[in-house]
Design a protein that fits this description.
By secondary structure, the chain is α/β, with parallel strands linked by helices. Helices cover 25% and strands 26% of the residues. It is built from eleven helices and 17 strands. α4 packs across α5 and α4 packs across α10. Bound molecules: zinc ion (2 copies). One zinc ion (ZN) binds next to α2.
């Protein structure tokens, strides 16, 4: 079988390797069908992902078919369509015990700290695969993981229908947070980006107000829309140096408001204790997702989300070089790629 391996920054190759065998009676063998390409995969390729080591098989947004099961497997069978969780945890530590396994003290992540799904077959324990209805097209099934992030960060942010939401950045994750907030009944969701095409897409996904911060004054628009109150919760899915400080400025989030930064920007920002405490702001961390695959799969099966346009480019596994080409030559119209495995 073939696997894609990133051996170092800007170095990727396709290798022929033996088929994996089921070595643990609780494992299943998965034949990959589709895999999303995420921002973190771009960072692995460019050598800027602090959570990744080399050589590494990328891929944490994995969907496939079970082709064999170990003798003790009971929850899935040969032929089932499945989504594979990205996190592997110890199950023993404080975080695992309080239901925060995504930040397990020894968490390993498929596709960054451990090998992922950009290969034709791999094995995983049955507890880390979730069945998905075989009516869901593979190109959509690959979007389960990013939608699980939307479910997780909106839970972490305690989003309810009464919230007035601000989303900075309407790329893949911003669009997904938008759809998740609308699915939770939020009546006012304000989206900001510097790309008109992204903002058009956000309108299609239900954004009530869009702001192009290249042309408009963000603070003034938010003040006008919220009648001077500010939003109750802000998600920073733009994640550039200074974006958290931008969202922290008085007038964006109301007193007692919440801010959820989504990224891993490593440059320091100028945030003071007073900025947090004068208005008693909650800054809430959110990493990947925890226990959100199964509910997200239900939503996708029910057609609760508008998946059209979330992925913009579908690339055959046999053309994987095209994925790396797009990583080397960023094009704003390529918002998200999904790899489709050859039959
Ligand atoms: Zn991802
Ligand atoms: Zn643990």
């Amino acid at each position: 079988m073939k696997e894609v391996i990133v051996t170092g920054p800007h170095k990727a190759e396709v290798r022929d390797v033996p088929m994996p065998k089921i070595e643990n009676k609780h494992d299943v063998l998965i034949k990959m069908q589709s895999a999303g390409v995420c921002g973190s995969d771009h960072h692995i390729y460019h050598g800027t992902n602090p959570c990744s080591t080399y050589p590494r098989i990328p891929g944490h947004e994995n969907a496939g078919i079970v082709t064999a099961v170990g003798s003790a497997v009971t929850t899935v069978k040969k032929g089932d369509h499945v989504i594979v969780d990205l996190i592997m945890t110890c199950g023993e530590c404080y975080q695992c015990k309080i239901g925060r396994k995504n930040v397990c003290e020894s968490v390993r992540v498929r596709g960054s700290g451990a090998d992922g799904g950009w290969r034709e077959y791999f094995t995983a324990p049955e507890t880390e695969v979730y069945k998905i209805n075989d009516k869901v097209p593979w190109k959509d099934a690959a979007l389960t993981e990013p939608f699980a992030i939307g479910a997780h960060c909106t839970n972490r942010g305690r989003v309810t229908a009464d919230d007035v939401v601000f989303i900075l950045g309407t790329g893949t994750i911003g669009s997904i947070i938008l759809q998740t907030c609308k699915a939770k009944g939020c009546k006012t969701v304000i989206c900001c980006d510097v790309s008109d095409s992204s903002l058009e897409r956000a309108k299609k996904y239900g954004a009530d107000y869009v702001i192009n911060s290249k042309r408009e004054n963000l603070l003034e628009r938010i003040q006008t829309i919220t009648k001077g109150r500010g939003v109750t919760i802000a998600f920073d899915s733009a994640c550039f140096k200074g974006s958290l400080t931008l969202v922290m400025q008085p007038g964006i989030v109301c007193n007692a408001g919440r801010i959820v930064p989504m990224g891993f920007v490593t440059e320091p920002e100028s945030i003071t204790q007073a900025m947090i405490n004068q208005r008693e702001i909650d800054i809430i961390g959110s990493r990947m997702s925890c226990c959100q695959f199964e509910p997200t799969i239900k939503h996708i099966e029910n057609g609760d989300f508008d998946l059209e346009g979330i992925a913009t480019n579908f690339i055959k596994f046999s053309n994987i070089q095209e994925v790396f080409y797009h990583m080397e030559h960023p094009d704003p119209s390529v918002k998200k790629m999904v790899i489709l495995f050859d039959e």
